[in-house]
């Protein structure tokens, strides 16, 4: 005969199994141990209720902390990734370890293209010596340093930036790879204005020409 399909056990069978388990549990109670009184039972129930409220309060606290963390992460995103200047973290060898979205947009490259690449690759070849001297000064003195140089986009567009670098002391103290934080500020317009002003002053210093004869 075909076997009956297995499914939910009948309620009577489940109750019988539950009662058997309770009796088995009672049989394990050492002899001489008194049966809990009504007051002891009420106290135990009270403790369970208090513990339940404590768990609920802990859950509420965790939810509050989680909400604050999400707000902090949103603020971090705005301050770091949407800042008007580019932020990079470089290794001692000048490899880009991290970069914000502004730096990515300034160089017109994908973040995956920047990470673990030497920042010198994106600096105009004629200005790379300026960058190398800048890095030497930074690590020799352990103090912030700044320089101005030209960087290049993939399409060949050049633009002026001011690099302000600072050693990351907390990371060094942890025994990790020495790194530095770099701020990249686009100063192309400022440099163009300086060039125009310089050209204007040069023209003003030129001796006046003699009027031609008629």
Description:
The structure is a single chain. The chain is built from 7 helices and 5 strands. It is of the alpha+beta class. The chain has a domain at 85-200: Beta-Lactamase, CATH 3.30.450. It has a 5-stranded antiparallel sheet, with helices on both faces. A hairpin with a 5-residue loop joins β3 and β4. 10% of the residues are buried. The model is unreliable at 1-5 and 170-174 (pLDDT under 50).
Keywords for this entry:
214 residues, Beta-Lactamase, 51% helix, disordered N terminus
Mean pLDDT: 82
CATH hierarchy class name of one domain: Alpha Beta
Describe the sheet with the most strands.
Answer: 5 strands, antiparallel
Number of β-strand runs: 5
Please give a quick description of this structure:
With 214 residues, this protein is α+β, with helices and mostly antiparallel strands.
Could you give the topology of this structure?
Blueprint lengths: L10 H17 L10 H44 L4 E6 L4 E4 L1 H7 L3 H4 L13 H14 L3 E8 L5 E10 L1 H5 L5 E8 L1 H18 L9
Antiparallel strand pairs: 1-2, 1-5, 3-4, 4-5
